């Protein structure tokens, strides 16, 4: 039977991303990568209720962490909440929240390439020692994981008793992520902010209600650390 080359190319293009998973070696085949994955206690999760890309607002998790969601169709979503200390200024803790989504593909060398939808992602940075203590901007950053592996958790038989290990482009391991939702919790897997441009728009959020919610979380940590420092000095 003759198949026209154009028809054949369309058939190949229609093969879902799951088929690509099966082409990887056995370490990936414990389960599909589809689902919502989260580090630690699972306080940080993608999906409805986590963020609002239209007005660039976050619902702040109780703890720091990272979350990624994937679909077998090739969509992904990221939500990160991190804090970084300052060695020279212990009271100057920086909190960073990041959200973005887009499409991904498995590369022949076993790596995972994530491409964001331009204009949807955004990032909030809080730093009490900076000239602007709380600011937000549109964010779009491609991600390359040099390796990814899914392992079953020993001694557990639950369907979600697996974790995902990701490795940054330079081989640095990301904290293991547990499967917390299947199917994944995700916002719409297409462009959401249709009027956004690639130009970063920064706004001071000190007057916003979100700032009143978020800043005490970070400053509470600062006060606690400062108090600990004072105790050590007294000792």
UniProtKB/TrEMBL annotation:
InterPro entries: Rot1. The keyword Repressor does not apply. Residues 1-19 form the signal peptide. It is a single-pass type I membrane protein. The chain crosses the membrane at residues 215-234. Keywords: Endoplasmic reticulum, Membrane, Signal, Transmembrane, Transmembrane helix. Belongs to the ROT1 family. This is Protein ROT1. It comes from Sphaerobolus stellatus (strain SS14).
